Amino acid sequence: MGKKLKNAGLIGLGVVAGVAVSLQFSAMAQKQVDPVLPLEELKQLADVYGLIKSDYVESVEDKKLLTEAISGMVASLDPHSAYLDKKAYAELREGSQGKFVGLGIEIGQSDEGYIRIVAPIEDSPAYRAGIKAGDMITRLDATSLKGLSLDESVKKMRGEPGTKVTLTIMRKDEPQPLQFTLNREEIHQKSVKARMVSPGYAWVRISQFQEPTVEDLATKITELYRQDPHLKGLVLDLRNDPGGVLQGAIGVAAAFLPKDTPIVSTNGQLPDSKQIYYGRAEYYSLRGDGDPLAKLPAAVKHVPMAVLVNTGSASASEIVAGALQDYKRATIIGSQTFGKGSVQTIRQLTADTAVKLTTARYYTPHGRSIQAKGIAPDLAVDENEDGDGLNSLRMREADLAKHLSNDREQEGGKSQRDELEEQMRILAAEKKRKPLEYGSGEDFQLKQALNHLQGTPVQLAKGESKLVKLDPPPKK
């Protein structure tokens, strides 16, 4: 594809999500900190502060200097830790509730110094306008984005609902720049969609893990069983799901596994970060008003399942896929996932500011660390019949600067599959493709998942065996 993206992030403009954040909100940590401060380094900080105040070409506000110092300190740790000012903190809280104001694009910074579109978010202003993965934003209204940081560019793209912004875009194979005028919107995301896609077979898509996700999933599954009490198979679609609320992931996995099953464990410095999370209501119910999964049809625990994942499946998505894979509850189909195996905790600083801090790694029930590695599918299937399409343009956690290491496995060099995916990136960038509508009649991966559940051959990804037929998951 040429040059890779720098600091690629999954940022639905208006949602401070970093790359697929699993959220836990809490007060400041109670761990005792070593009282011995590095006085020499603090003196240097004070000296630089003094120099800026006295010698800089123009006056700079104290608040700006100190806020930027905090922001830089936190951002230096890893791609997912960040200082949240008043606006960012409010947007994060709104996003976890399933709503945000923005354009609806996932972006990264390119080597050319501009902002590159990783993907438009489904049902967003950008998606409806026809903005594509691989597009490069060069100007925002009259302002050039060349040289601006990712955070600075994001702030310029945010605004009030109903306000307009014009993006100037360079697109491969288009001789002239394109312009798109978009209205910023408050987008109320329904995180769960479901319908029957074939007689006896259901499709359930989770686009993001939010506070209402577990309740929404229970409602959708109940509706599916009303339509067909004898479901033969279910496809759980987690493609391009960047993650979200940790409790949502626990609840979704718990819906398909026996009660009290260990779903995920975490480990970090703080005692309360060393946890095992089980499939029971105390770990996934956010509203404290009972168990949203209590009235699920019993058959859902045994219905044959396939789970669709891709490079955009991250964090909470990987928790669900990893748990269902470990227990052999479902066949994982698609491409290797993003590889974000870390938990971010929100530590409130003031009434309206906070720090989003990486506090733990998480592990599948069998102890696998997904960090910078991801979940490898049981059946590798490309996005399209002739290749992996726009999915090939995405970066993974391991591509991000300063990413947290995998503490249980060494990050090896490129595998044969990695080399093949690099070639597919080049091919994908050369082809003009529209964003795929998941669950549509053109959804090749969904067709392959149904083939698997129905016991017919599955067309595997290029470089794999051409066709494979595995027995579908048995009913238990």
Automatic annotation (TrEMBL):
**Signal peptide region:** none
SUPFAM superfamilies given in the database record: ClpP/crotonase, PDZ domain-like
What are the UniProt keywords, alphabetically?
Hydrolase, Protease, Serine protease
Q: Which PROSITE patterns match?
A: PDZ
Q: Where is the PDZ domain?
A: 89-158
Give yes or no: UniProt keyword Nucleotidyltransferase. Answer: no
- Name of a matching Pfam family: Peptidase_S41
What the entry lists under SMART domains is as follows: PDZ, TSPc
Entry's Gene Ontology cellular component terms: outer membrane-bounded periplasmic space
Q: Which domain of life is it from?
A: Bacteria
Protein name (database record): PDZ domain-containing protein
Q: Where does this protein come from, organism-wise?
A: Pseudoduganella guangdongensis
Identify the taxonomic lineage of the organism of origin: Bacteria, Pseudomonadati, Pseudomonadota, Betaproteobacteria, Burkholderiales
